Every structure is written in structure tokens, then in C-alpha cells.
Amino acid sequence: MNRLERAILDLHEIDAMAARRTFLAGLHPAGKTLAILLYMLTTVSFGKYDWCGVLRMAPGLIVLFMLSGLSPGRTARRMSGVLLFIALFGLFNPILDREIIGHIGRVPLTSGMVSMAAMFLKGTFCLGASCCLAASTGMEGICYGLQSLHVPRILVVVIMLIYRYLVLLLQEGNRIFTAYQLRAPGQNGVCYTAWGSLLGQLLLSGMSRAEQVYDSMRMRGFDGRFYMMGDGRDGWRPGRTVAFFLLTFCYLAVCRLFF
């Protein structure tokens, strides 16, 4: 299985996870979407040197993983590429910010190291929270929640179409890569001389399939609105949703304002 096939399976698995019987999946999409967005905004609101403040958000993330039924270790392995990018993004902080603020034994501790650690924690916590939301809601549920929060319809539709087009693009890329491998057996990767033509073919075939999918959506009555009837069992739990949102809001207020 190549990387494209693995990525397609991961996206389909996220949709399958949203149908599981978990506490977070039984909440209304608008309530949990707003709560997790507030969690992410609170996490990034800490100062660039306040890594201790960012660490106070860790218990909330642990609770989200427990309520969504996700495995933190498995999620970290699947998101290892994104975590590596987050780490590389702050790699230049120790080089640019060399002010010494303390020592760990004989090793000097600079403010750039502290800001790099805080940036990595912020990115990791926000990524983990978004994974919990996606795995317990699904893209349709997230769009329905955003629509319930009166987010502009054009923005919600764009988010949905980007997600759909991403899946189509991966499928077309996998089809083109498989055809290339069949015509060039034993070759590792794609020769650089074929990059331009393959990318052009990927763009054209992806746009063609995207138009077909959108036409199919329109023929089935898609008008930019999202309609959902609950989680398919006994409907969403309004009381649990309100309690979850209030507890999340109180936790964030305590972490941000009183410490």
C-alpha cells in the first residue's frame, strides 16, 4: 500500500469513526464544534514564552481523547508528518532569539528554546483537538454545526467542497501513479522528467471528476444547506451538549484567567 492509498483510507476511517457510539459523537455538532474552537483559540492565546500556561490545556485534551474514543498514540503516529512540520516551524527560534533566561544544569536556557517549546505544544494541542472533533463528528456534521452557528453559507460550502475535492485528488493521484508504475516496473518513484505532464494530467482529471461530483450533488437536491436528523440512534442529547459546553467554558476560563 502506497502513501496515497493510506491517506485515502485514513480519510474514510475518519468518517467511519464519526458513526461510533461515543459520548462526544452523541453531542450536537454546533455545541461541540464551538467548544473545541474555543479550546483551540484559548490555547493559541497564551504568550509565546508561556509554555507553563499552555501545559494547563493538556488535561482538557486528555478528556477529549477519552470522550471521543481515540487512541493518543495511534493518532500521534498518523499525524507524525504534521507534528514534524510543527517542530520544524519553530526550529529557528533558538537561533534568532538567544537571550539566556536560565540554566538547566550547565546548559544555558534561552528564550528561543522556550518559545519553540510553547509553539510546539500549541500546535500539538490544537491538532489533537481537531482530530477529536473530526473523528466524533465527520465533515458533514462539522459543516452542519458551522451552519447552525450562522457561519456564512459560502464559507461552509467551500470547506465541504475542499474536503470532497481532496479525496478526489488523492484518488486520481493514486490512479495515475498506479498507471505509471505499470508502465515503468521496477522504478522507484516517478522520474523527474515526467513530473510536469503527470501534474497537468492530475489537475485536468481532478477538475473533471470534481465537476461530475458537483453536478451529481446538484441533481440530488444540494442547495448549500446541510440537513441532519441526529446521530441515527436516539438523536442528539441537548442536555449533555449544554453541560459539555458549560464545563468546557468554565475550564477554559479558569485556565486562562485565574492562573
Please supply descriptive tags for the structure shown above:
single chain, 259 residues, mainly alpha, 70% helix, globular
Description:
With 259 residues, this protein is mainly alpha-helical. 70% of the residues lie in helices and 3% in strands. A two-stranded antiparallel sheet has the order 1-2. Strand 1 and strand 2 (107-110) form a beta hairpin. The N and C termini lie far apart (48 Å).
For the biggest β-sheet, the strand order reads 1-2
Helix content: over 70%
Number of helices: 11
Question: β content, as a range?
Answer: under 5%
Oligomeric status of the shown chains? Answer: single chain
Question: Secondary-structure map with pairings?
Answer:
Elements: H1 3-17, H2 29-44, H3 51-55, H4 58-68, H5 72-78, H6 80-89, H7 93-96, E1 100-104, E2 107-110, H8 111-148, H9 153-183, H10 195-219, H11 238-257
Antiparallel strand pairs: 1-2
In brief:
The protein is mostly helical and 259 residues long.
